[in-house]
Write a structure and sequence with these properties.
225 residues, 8 helices
Length: 225
Amino acid sequence: MEQLIIVEDDSSLNQGLCKALRSEERHIVSCQNMTEAREQLLLGYPSLVLLDINLPDGNGLELLKELKRDMPSMPVILITANDTDMDIVNGLELGADDYITKPFSLSVLRARVNTQLRKVTLLQGDDQVQIDHFKFDFAHMVYSVNDEAVELSKTEQKLLRLLVKNAGVTMSRGELVDRVWTDGSEYVDENALSVTVKRLRDKLGAQEYIKTVYGVGYTWVKKNG
């Protein structure tokens, strides 16, 4: 069953959204502030979050940043006031999948929610990968080797996804550094990449899969058959 989290402090609007989006195949969770939303997110991985920017206990963009850091493939639709263009720009740059400005038609919102959920459905097959004895669920951040769970850091997950999605292709060290460390907050020494690659290999036991291409970078080796 799909689960949607609605984070909106206006009680009447929140109730209206819940009513408009609820269905037999969909469970709706109502939150009126970021604290409630964070508590709910600890309980499970929702299908989509509908997030108001202006909340009583902080800016919704901060919660958006956390969501896209911890659950990058989960769609988030922002609810914004009609005079906050900069918030919209900032939200999209932080990874928001769509936005809708108040006042809005519930039918239009419903259509946008359904569009994002369809996209998730189409991408799920690509987000769940099985290679020999490895199982990687990138959407839900669940990884296993020989059916035993393996815990990976966010950086290791990003690196693994890039290598697996580009299996058989050598990715340069510079490209990997740029795409794994995307916050741009500070200079990242390429030694950090070497350390992360080693940790990832050791955790997965993937020495025969993650290969170093000396002088260039790394590749996930495609096995024949």
